[in-house]
Design brief:
Layout (H helix, E strand, L loop, with lengths): L3 H10 L3 H11 L11 H7 L9 H8 L17
Helix pairs in contact: 1-2
Length: 79
């Protein structure tokens, strides 16, 4: 959430880093299940319909991939 590109783009779109990442996932067609222990943050993370991330910025976010997705460990995804 503190990655410089995430911080920069969340400022550009006037949203929190969490909202930016939820929006990115939805625009990619993913089922997004954000988690938080704070009620306010759960509500805030659901408020992502007021903006759309440009293709260029979607690509910039995709380039931040650090291969931390747990699904990559499943046998069907091994390369």
């Amino acid at each position: 959430m503190k990655h410089p590109i995430i911080v920069e783009l969340s400022k550009r779109y006037g949203c929190t880093p969490g909202q930016l990442l939820v929006r990115w996932g939805l625009q990619n067609g993913f089922v997004v299940l954000p988690k938080s222990t704070k009620k306010e943050r759960i509500k805030k993370n659901s408020e992502v319909s007021g903006f759309e991330i440009s293709r260029e910025d979607m690509d910039r976010l995709a380039a931040c991939h650090e291969k931390l997705v747990t699904g990559e460990c499943f046998p069907g995804n091994l390369r």
